[in-house]
Amino acid sequence: HDMKTEPNPSVPCGEFMVSGGNGAHLFFRNIDFGDGATEVELMMDGEKAVELYLDSLDTEPLGSVELSFSRGHMTPFVMKFGEVRGKHSLFIRFTEKVQRLSWFRLQ
Q1: Whole-angstrom Cα distance, residue 57 to residue 69?
Q2: Greater confidence, 66 or 31?
Q3: pTM of the entire structure?
Q4: Would you put residue 71 in left (φ > 0), alpha (ψ -120 to 50) or beta?
Q5: Distance between terminal CA atoms of the chain?
Q6: How far apart are CA 18 and CA 45, in angstroms?
Q7: Residues 102, 69: contact at Cβ < 8 Å?
Q8: Alpha-carbon gap, residue 104 to 63, rounded angstroms
Q9: DSSP assignment letter at 69
Q10: Which residues on neighbouring strands pair with residue 104, listed in sequence order?
C-alpha cells in the first residue's frame, strides 16, 4: 500500500505522511532508543489504530494505540511499551486508509 505526502499548513515547509490503505507503513532504520525509551508520542489524525514494530513487520507489534476519531484535527496520541534500548529499525503501520502523521517522538 502506498504512502503519500500532503502539505501541512500549520508548519512552514512541512508535510504530512498519509497512509494509502490498511497495512501501509513507514520504515526508519537505525533509530536510537538510547538508554531506554518506554513510549512514543504521535501527532496524528484519523481513526482505528496505528501499530509500532521493531526490526520487522513479521514480529508481534511493540504496541498499538487506538485513535479516537479526529479526522481533520491533528491530535497527540501516546503509545506506551516495555523499555527498548539501543538502535533498532522502526516500523509505523497504519490500519486505515486515511490516517495522517505529522511527527513522532520517542521518550
Answers
A1: 25
A2: 31
A3: 0.84
A4: beta
A5: 29
A6: 10
A7: no
A8: 14
A9: P
A10: 42
